[in-house]
Specification:
Layout lengths: L3 H16 L5 E3 L2 E3 L5 H20 L2 E4 L2 E4 L8 H14 L14 E7 L2 E6 L14 E6 L5 E5 L3
C-alpha cells in the first residue's frame, strides 16, 4: 500500500531539512518539521488521531481503482450506499497516473457542512514524516459537483 514515489519524496524532504539545518521534533509520536506553537501542535495531533480512527472504521476500500464496500453484505444499508456513491464520484476526478492507490486502501467519506469530503488513506511508516492522505476530493453535497482535488498533503 505504500506509494513508492511518495516515500521517496518524504525521504528527500527529511534529508533536505537536515541539510538545511532545520530541526524536527517528535511530540506524542508525531514528527513536526516546521516550527509550530504548542496549540498548533496539539490541534494537528488531534486531527490526525481523529482521521486515523475514522479511517480505521471506514467501510469503503479500493479494488482496481474503484471504491467498493468492504463487506458486500452491507449493500442494503442506505448510508453506506450514499457514501459509496460519493466515493465513486470522487474517483472520477482522480487519475491513476497522478495518484497511485493500492488495492485495499481505505476511503473515508465525511459530510462537512454543505460539502462531502472524500479522503483516500496513505501509508506512512511509523516514525516518518509523511502525507495525511493520498488524495482528498471535496464535492457539493447536493449536486456532487467538484469543488476541489488535493494530492498528498
Amino acid at each position: 500500500m505504500i506509494n513508492k514515489a511518495l516515500f521517496t519524496l518524504m525521504l528527500l524532504s527529511i534529508t533536505f531539512a537536515a541539510l538545511a539545518g532545520q530541526e524536527s521534533q517528535v511530540i506524542n509520536g508525531v514528527r513536526f518539521s516546521v516550527p509550530m506553537s504548542a496549540e498548533e501542535q496539539q490541534k494537528a495531533i488531534e486531527r490526525k488521531i481523529a482521521r486515523d480512527a475514522a479511517m480505521k472504521d471506514s467501510q469503503i476500500v479500493v479494488r482496481s481503482y474503484i471504491p467498493q464496500l468492504l463487506y458486500p453484505e452491507n449493500a442494503d444499508k442506505p448510508h453506506l450506499q450514499e457514501q459509496l456513491s460519493f466515493a465513486r464520484e470522487a474517483f472520477t476526478h482522480l487519475s491513476p497516473d497522478a495518484v497511485a492507490i493500492s488495492d485495499g486502501t481505505k476511503v473515508l467519506v465525511e459530510e462537512v457542512g454543505s460539502t462531502v469530503v472524500v479522503t483516500v488513506e496513505t501509508f506512512v511508516p511509523e516514525g516518518f514524516i509523511g502525507a495525511d492522505f493520498a488524495a482528498q476530493v471535496t464535492l457539493d453535497k447536493e449536486s456532487k459537483a467538484l469543488i476541489s482535488v488535493l494530492g498528498s498533503r
